[in-house]
Amino acid sequence: MRPWSLPLLALVLVLALAPGADAQPKDTLTIALPSHAPTLDPHMHFERVGVLVNINMFDSLLHRNAKLEYEPSLATSWKALNETTWEFKLRKGVKFHNGDPLTAEDVKFSFERVTEPGKEKKKSPQYGNIRAVKEVRIVDPETIHIITDKPFPLLLERLVFFNIVPKKHTENVGDDAFGSSAPVGTGPWKFVEWKRDQYIRLEAFDGYWRGKPPFKYLVVRAIPEVATQIAEIKTGGVDLIRSVSADIMPELKVHPQTYVSSAPILRVHQIELDMRYPPFDKKLVRQAANYAIDKQSIIQKLMGGLGTQVATNVQPAAFGFDPDVKPYPYDPKKAKELLAQAGYPSGVDVTLHSGDVATRAYFEAMAQMLTEVGIRVNARMWDPGPAWNKLYQTDGKATNGVYVTWGNYSVFDADAVLHPLFHSEVGGWIGKHYTRVEGLDKLIDEGRSTLNKEQRKRTYSQIQRMIREEAPAVFLFTQYDTLAISKRVEYAARGDEWLWLFDAKPKR
Amino acid sequence: MPAFVVRRLARLLVVIVGVSLVTFAILHASGDPVALIMPEAPEADRAVLRQTLGLHDPLPVQFARFVGRALTGNFGNSFFHRTPAFPLVIERMPTTLLLTALSMTLALAVALPVGIYSAVKRGRAMDQLATGTVFLGQSMPVFWTGIMLILLFSVQWRLLPVSGWDSWAAVLLPTVTLSTFTAPLLLRIVRSSMLDVIGLDYVRTARAKGVSEWLVIGRHALKNAALPLVTVTGLQFGLLLGGAVITETVFAVPGVGRLIVGAIRQLDFPVVQAGVFMLAMIVVSVNFAIDLLYVYLNPQIRVR
Fold first, then answer.
1. FRET partner for A60 with CA separation of 20 to 30 A, picked from A451, B242, B255, B298?
2. 3-class secondary structure for B158-176?
3. Chain A contact for B201 (CB, 8 A cutoff)
4. CB-CB neighbours of A426 under 10 Å
5. For an interface test with B, which of A13, A46, A197, A219 has the most B Cβ atoms less than 10 Å from its Cβ?
């Protein structure tokens, strides 16, 4: 009798009896996300992983289709009556998962859950998105008016992911149960089960107004580790994973079980420069930094070609983009000249920071390029938490700039990037610490205070010319998002990074 | 005996307070959770939130409040989940304990027989193989082992599910991964302490009396070789919980370790504190239990 043979035998037996990698039932679509949001209540979190689930259970007044155009959803039509009043006609015959019909009361209730008129402290983390909504007025059972406190051009963008919940049911079960065990919407799938940190299981809603979704079950698994997600999709444990990086893409492209689908997204990359301190208080140095970076070779060599150079951080896909403003070319000679003109003929030392692990390779490559023209970079990587503290909370003395990527919160409008990154008012994000461009604040305010599209376009053109010249940041590129998808499912990546799985179909 | 227990308990308390203090200090040095919770909000809104979360007070005040509350099992509300932090940890505790216990059992189930066999057949092929495996096992980081096992058993051979925690088959790979972390060390201890006693006079005497080899090894030698093994097993338990943090992340196991990793990323102070507190409690309790076990195994320890 050999002592090790027993455990070995046991292992072999268990392996033989194990069900093995799970082939999934045909009517089930399983996707992987790195985590679950803390709640299924669409109004009580603002996590992308949660939004991606919520939009498949709840509808909004407007929908954005795969071509990124607005489409009627719970509202069949809408128009601005004046600068601050919008009228929405509601769809008739829409039912919630519990059988209750959708009413204007539900819409009003949904907004007031978040805006909580009259209350000092707002409990919803989404309050900031729709804080401009002053009142929701029910005109008749099929018509509502949304009244904003000032002209709010982003309203429709915000409404696309503002989900409508049932008043009666939500009040009956209470906020906590609604978010954990009894979420009810009007969307394509209804709630079945949520095992925290494991999976959310949804089932097709028979009474859905768009018709039945092609997959009967939708399962959202929480898998934090990328390598594990990849192993899952190769073995059919999941059908779709997000954020596939350039180095893994070729493998999943040719794998017999999977294909990849990419789309340009709103995430834009830049090095925000601290304009309050030398050397980036000098425009010529900031311009030199812009000339020093070979964006094209980073896109080709590190991003698998999936990126687009930009002139400023206003996205080609965003409202207000001006194609006549051209990106800085790669010109190291010119960069050196500008640096010398600015009074740094023998170069200058700077410290740049990044808290973004995913883009570390780009950051390091750029630090090298800047160093080559004489802007000698001490490149520092941080964990996201401490980075936040270090870079945006302190007075900036320790830093000359920070590498950031900005996702625009999926809002296709120039304001969504200009205000947080460059506006120097207190509410600004990086702008308030770093950016000091004469007249820029006023133009950004101008752009967000009218609904007149032509006027807004002109303002944003002016801003783009201004920031390209003033260079408050090193403008880089936009990126793509890549999904890996099982060959048994037909779906395509979207420019807003949404997973609108009603569009997913079984293949063959 | 009671004095001994009291002394150990006092030491236990010191460790727990120390761990809490260190966790607290590191967390508060690591960043501003409010900036992470509401990146785009105006400073006024942030101030309100800071007030709500109690983050505006001086650190000593915050720590005192934390200790005061922790004594009643209240670690405050999770910033992210917006529910009390302690239940979030307790909810996930059974999963982590199960994973750790299974791994420890598996590690012992391998280490004991193989270690004894290696000692008895010292220098033979089997011994050399075992010693080599120990080196290999100790050199592999857990996350790497985990991913390699996934690639072999799930992707290549399609025998086991890649990740999850909803079937016994899914439990297997994380358990094996975690036990490779500790089995080699245990095996080495078993082998060396067996070698220490196997040559001693009383073992030879037992053999000379004609006691069967099974009894000689199993009763006489093993019982005396057990003490270092018990010590190391206790110490390894803490390491295993640390390994569970990584294993849970790789295999998407819904345990405390993964909760803590997520909470660290989100600067969710209450959850990190509650989680680390719980893990520290377990390690300390296990060590306490081991201390008591010593007394049973070796009466000499009672003296001091």
1. A451
2. CCCCCCCCCCHHHHHHHHH
3. no
4. 10
5. A197
Please provide the DSSP assignment of A321-387 as one string.
--TTSPPPP--HHHHHHHHHHTT-TT-EEEEEEE--GGGHHHHHHHHHHHHHHTEEEEEEE--HHHH
Neighbours of A324 (CB within 10 A): 8
d(CA B16, CA B277): 7
- The residue in chain B having the minimum alpha-carbon distance to the alpha carbon of residue A176 is B83
Using CA atoms, how far residue B153 sits from A300, A371, B148, B163, B174, in Å, is 36, 47, 9, 11, 12
CA distances from A392 to A274, A353, A356, B28, B267 (A): 11, 11, 14, 16, 16
Mean pLDDT of A459-470: 97
Asked if A196 has any chain B CB less than 8 Å from its own CB, the reply is yes
Amino acid at B157: W
Report the 10 Å Cβ neighbour count for A298.
21
| Residue where the block lists tokens 């030491």 | B11
Q: Do B110 and A385 touch (CB under 8 A)?
A: no
Rounded Cα gap, residues B220 and B204, in angstroms: 10
Whether residues B262 and A231 touch (CB distance < 8 A) is answered with no
Amino acid, res. B111: A
Q: What is the DSSP string of B273-301?
A: HHHHHHHHHHHHHHHHHHHHHHHHH-GGG
CB contact under 8 A, A198 and B158: no
**Selected residues 74-133 of chain B with any CB under 8 Å from a CB in chain A:** 78, 80-83, 91-92, 109-110, 113-114, 116-117
Residue A227 Cα, gap to closest chain B Cα (Å)? 7
> Rounded distance, CA B58 to CA B75, Å?
18
Residues comprising chain A, all counted: 508
Rg (CA), chain B: 24
CB atoms within 10 A of CB A140: 9
Q: Which residue has the tokens 């320890």?
A: B301
DSSP A182: -
Interface with A, mutate which of B80, B163, B213 (most A CBs under 10 A)? B163
Q: Does A235 touch chain B (CB under 8 A)?
A: yes
Q: Determine how many CB atoms are found less than 10 A away from the CB of residue B253.
A: 26
Per-residue pLDDT tens for A37-57? 999 999 998 888 999 999 999
Q: What is the dihedral of CA B217, B222, B224, B227, to 10 degrees?
A: 170
pTM over 0.80: yes
Mean pLDDT to the nearest integer, A161-178: 96
Say whether A503 sits in a helix, a strand or coil. Answer: helix
| ipTM value for the complex | 0.88
**B82: which chain A residues are within 8 Å (Cβ-Cβ)?**
38-39, 44
CB A75 within 8 A of CB A91: yes
* pLDDT range class, residue B242, cuts 50, 70, 90: confident
Distance CA A346, CA A369 (A): 16
Query: Which letter does DSSP use for residue A254 in this model?
Result: H
Indicate whether A21 pLDDT > 50: no
